[in-house]
Amino acid sequence: MKLKILTILFAATIFYNCSDDFLDKTKLGELTTENFFVTETNAFQSVVAAYSDLKDYRYVWTIWCFGDVLSEDATYSGSDNDVQAFALMESYNFPADNARIADRWQILFRGVNKANQAIDGISGMDVGLFKTMSQHRLLGEALFLRAYYYHELVITFGDVPLMTKTPTIVDKNLTRSPIDQVYAQIEKDLITAADYLPAKSTLNMATDAGRITKAAANAMLSRVYLYEKKYENCKIASKAVFAESDYSLVASYSDVFKLSGENCSESILEITQYDSPGGASVGALNNNGNFHMLMMMPFGTTYGFGLNQPKATLAKAYMDEGDSIRKHATMLTVDSLRVWESAIDFAKLARNRTGYYNAKYYLKPAQRSLQPRNNPTNIRLIRLPEVYLNYAEACTLHPTTVEGEDEARTYLNKVRERAHLAKKNSKGDALFEDIMLERRLEFGGEGRRYWDIVRAGKAATAFVSKGIFKPATCNLMPVPQSEIDASGGLITQNPR
């Protein structure tokens, strides 16, 4: 059974432009942090509410339309209007009023606020109220979620308002906190979460699949430290994951992305999705399935929109490396599509701009939900190969006698061997480039490429085919203009 997301009526956003008198009034009978947290079930519901923003289609949209489409690996497709609407983004002229940028800011801060409410409420409860659940575990999940949401914010916007308590009227005057302060809070939350959370081996996967674990906290720490260039800390966090016996690479790469591969031995964190009943009432905001199957699948042939199309440049990267296994599992060709779709449906294929679709988000006709927005495929957020490559990169960029290039090559080659590729024996800068290439091939179509290249300082050259990427103004996206306006200018804009 997958973790099902409940709807809890918690505060979601800070409204900077409301009057103090209005906000200070509480409706009779309204649930508040003070009167909601009275049972362990209430505590659990608050954490589930904090999870729910991982499933919000508007946030997930930004995973691929930023992480894939803004890189050289994919392009925004769909209708001519769809393409035109995203053209400025794809050429690195990020508009401050772009809807996807606004979605990312608003949904991630909504997640932060829900996590804060859960942390405050659960921390204030008497431990004796927890008879069948662990208070520490619930706190660990909420702390992880706050850290995850904040990391997604800082890699996008840099300095952001830092909130570690349930928002009050005072918070309408919050300004942007320095990124180092936000990172310090992210680290603190993840370290505490790792202490509080259980190992995967202790879970009942029939009921706990999709819940955050100790390994997820340490894996996320390894990612965070890599972004901060704290390489020794990255090594320590990575090895904490390796120390758990619950995780190993799946023998077949393509199996990881099948329905049968959900929560497999290399999966550390997934956004759980399921095909729930709902009929015509299943819409964009109340579905429990993977809305992005609809976004990804080919237009005309399926009920998909075909918005995220991989490009021939990615296909060439696979072919140059002789990597047919991961290419086939990542890039759905028109010829492959012809095999699976009926002749009548295949003949309807339209808006095909590159000849490729994302195979990791394609379901064969018999596997699809009757509801286009409600497909069951989970979204893989953290997999073991990422931790292997985080560790390899840290060993390469900050080598020591014990954890240097030999270790880096060992973990790089663990990932390559699964793809049946020859071992790499490179050194120095060439080894780093091999690790970056491996990230591209391993996580193709998973929303990681753009962020990897930007943090490595290579975007100006890697993305030159798409537009002029100026690090001084493009490394961070603009703060949504609506947020600046609502704050009365207290929140400032990034360099433009």
Description:
This protein is mainly alpha-helical. Among the domains are: 1-18 and 36-197 and 457-496, Serine Threonine Protein Phosphatase 5, Tetratricopeptide repeat; 309-361, no CATH class. The protein contains 23 helices and 6 strands. The protein has helices at residues 20-24, 33-36, 40-55, 57-67, 80-90, 99-123, 135-157, 179-196, 205-208, 214-228, 231-242, 291-296, 312-320, 324-330, 334-340, 343-346, 384-397, 405-418, 428-442, 449-455, 459-462, 471-474, 481-486, and strands at 74-76, 267-271, 308-310, 331-333, 356-358, 379-383. It has a two-stranded antiparallel sheet with strand order 1-3. It has a two-stranded antiparallel sheet with strand order 2-6. Helix 7 (135-157) packs antiparallel against helix 8 and helix 17 runs antiparallel to helix 18. It is globular, with a radius of gyration of 22 Å. The termini are far apart. Residues 4-29 have low confidence and may be disordered.
